[in-house]
Amino acid sequence: MTRSFPRRRSLAVRLTAVSLLIALGSIAATAWLAVQTTTRAIQQEQGQALSGDATIYTEVLGFAAANHTWDQVGPKLRSLSEQTGRRIVLTTLDRRVLGDSGGAPVTLPVKATASVDPLHVDPVLLPQAGTSGIDPRAAGPFRLTPKEREDVDGLAKKAAVCLESMGIAGQVRESASGRPQLIGADPLSLRYFAGKCGLYALAAPTPTEQAALSSLNAAVNHCLESLGADQVKLDLDLEAVDVPDQAPIRGCIDSARREQLNPYVAPPALLFTLGPGGSPLPTFTLSRENLTRILAVTGGVLVLAAALTVLVATRLSRPLRALTEAAQQDRPAPVKSRDEVGYLAAAFNDLTARRERIEEQRKAMVSDIAHELRNPLNVIRGRLEAAEDGHLPFDRALSASLLEEAALLQHIVDDLQDLAAADAGQLRLHPEPLDAADLAGHVAAAHADRAATAGVTLAVAATGDCTLAADPVRLRQVVGNLVTNAIRHTPPGGRVTIRVSSTVDEVTLAVADTGTGIAAEDLPHVFDRFWRAEKSRNRQTGGSGLGLAIVRHLVQAHGGTVVAESEVDAGSTFTVRLPVAYRGRPA
């Protein structure tokens, strides 16, 4: 018989009236205040730290671009140290000290803060370097003589006065080579008044620039000749004249510039930024003032909440004691009563069981992600350490290898991001009418080079009217993942076919290969994240282990289905069926 309770004495009413008020109020206040205070502190202190490191790197890189040795770098390091409060040490690649801002010798960290090489600059650290990776402050043989600078400055001032008289405002700025440049003026207006205001004379190269430009032009053409490309002529902007597409020759231009600038810039070096006493800087540390402020705000709210909670808990804790003991001992609670406490105990038991299952799934997921990211990270670190120790040269082969591993990491992270968006319901679809046969043809064309490299024949077979409503980007991702997977597991001489067909209600996209196939006991797991049939879990085939899981999410979001059929040593077929009329939902 179910026991009834007076509503005013019901545990649910009392807990709702008091505990919710205290809990919600304290949690909301603590969370809001802590987030606001912590965010402000982090932004302030991280901004200061990043600004200091960026200033040091930029200034030291500028010194390297303007000097052919590090002999006079000491005063620059001491000035930067006084400005940022850091101890700065500069060494050769084999860690021979080139300059130190001061203090007793210290043991340098294993990893340098940055590598300083004006001819190989990371565009993220110095956006002005652009895709060439060359510091624009490295003028080298283009640097004007004092007499040339005086003459060109005179022309620039006259041009500025002339343009101002025409109502065109502009400023004269000196470049790294000493050549003045007009900035801030409208390009169309400059072109219109170029002859009247002497801009053609100003743009003419000086003898120094002409000699450097001729040398550079010869080196670029020698490179192009070795590639079987046409000869070009460069202008002062270091671009080929009358060549619409600069991309094919950009590599020769950049390599020739590096060869020309190499004698004029300082050799590559390692930069170390340390604490004032020479101790390694922590990744991030809150200042004492910010830490005290956060603790005071959080502590004050929590103390108030604790006081109110203790006052109420002394009157409500008795019927919950058994449940508390069960929670402390991490065991199921005995369910004896049929009141609110009994229902709470039953829910607690169910929650405990679900928590254990979720924890196992979480551990497995974290282990899988750590495994997938560890391999490329170990390769990158190992090769960088070998190069830093002098066992490997810093050449194009090493950079290409590191770029390949970085691209693999990016591929894994992008796939994880897609799955996370799908799990959170934030992967949106934008359906529109499209022809599935045309889409399959585009995917085949995009993968033609990969298939040819693998020695695999890639073909498309379409029948019937294959028009449907779907998100073209996401559907191309589905077919692309399936084709990539098929090519990866098909040996040379094999065949991958994209078959497209339709009925009145649905369109079918099937990707069939003549590859190694999948065992029957493994087929139910092919769409699981990070699952592979190879028990060794190696990455010889280059996949992230997430492509098929993403395929399943995207197909389900379109209201369709995807199934796998396979036979060992005969091949596999992945079949996607999508409704003609879009009835899906956001993934």
General description of the model:
The chain is an alpha+beta fold. The chain has helices spanning 11-66, 73-84, 146-165, 187-192, 199-203, 207-226, 247-261, 288-316, 321-328, 340-388, 396-423, 436-446, 448-454, 472-488, 547-557; strands at residues 87-91, 97-100, 114-116, 171-174, 180-183, 269-274, 432-435, 457-462, 467-470, 495-502, 506-513, 561-567, 571-579. A five-stranded mixed β-sheet has the order 8-10-11-13-12. A hairpin with a 3-residue loop joins strand 10 and strand 11 (506-513). The two termini are 47 Å apart.
Index terms:
single chain; about 575 residues; alpha+beta; Helix Hairpins; 4 domains; five-stranded mixed sheet; four-stranded antiparallel sheet; 13 strands; about 50% helix; disordered N terminus
Structurally, the number of domains stands at: 4
Rg over CA atoms: 34 Å
Q: What's the N-to-C terminus distance?
A: 47 Å
Strand-residue fraction? 5-15%
Q: Residue share in helices?
A: 40-55%
SSE series: HHEEEHEEHHHHEHHHHEHHEEHEEHEE
- As residue ranges, the low-confidence spans are 1-6, 535-542
Give the helix/strand class: alpha+beta
Tell me the major beta sheet: 5 strands, mixed
Count every helix, treating DSSP H or I runs of 4 or more residues as helices: 15
Quaternary structure of the protein: single chain
Order of strands side by side in the largest beta sheet? 8-10-11-13-12
**Rounded mean pLDDT score:** 79
Gross morphology is extended
